Amino acid sequence: MQPDEPLNYSAITELADGDVAFLKEFIESMQTTLTDFDRDFRMHLLERNTEKLRAMVHNMKPTLEGFGMHSLTEHIRTARELAHAAHCDERQLRSSADDVRRAIAELKGYLRVKADGLP
Questions:
Q1: How far is Cα of residue 11 from the mean position of the Cα atoms in its chain?
Q2: What are phi and psi of 41, to 5 degrees?
Q3: Domain map (residue ranges) of the chain
Q4: First and final CA of the chain: distance in angstroms?
Q5: Contact by Cβ (8 Å): 60, 41
Q6: Is there a smaller number of Cβ atoms within 10 Å at the N or the C end of the chain?
């Protein structure tokens, strides 16, 4: 993984094992998953629904770790901590949700460029 990459793209290409159709489909699926995660995470964070947040992160953990999505993982961790903090106000939660959204947008943009470069 290159230091400026938001995820470990080589892990994805290794998984595809040269199958470009699989790679394109996988990237498309990951884009959809990230979009859905962003929407639901934001909603549950602003509702302070810590159980739903925990379950969502638990389900996403293999993807986050397996593909080295470190920036997104850190923003998610911070947001979950804020959801548990009694002193945290809605403005802070929204700001944290925005940080998660920006990290997801960066990942999706990166994946879009990679997909566009495929034959």
A1: 16
A2: -60, -45
A3: 9-116
A4: 22
A5: no
A6: C
Distance between CA atoms of residues 40 and 34, nearest Å: 10
DSSP-H helix ranges across the chain? 9-16, 20-46, 50-66, 70-84, 90-116
Show the tokens assigned to 83. 């959801």
Question: Which DSSP state fits 2?
Answer: -
Which amino acid, 93? L
Other beta carbons less than 10 A from residue 63's beta carbon: 15
Instruction: Encode the chain (119 residues) as per-residue pLDDT tens digits.
Output: 667 899 999 999 999 999 999 999 999 999 999 999 999 999 999 999 999 999 999 999 999 999 999 999 999 999 999 999 989 999 999 999 999 999 999 999 999 999 999 99
pTM: 0.94
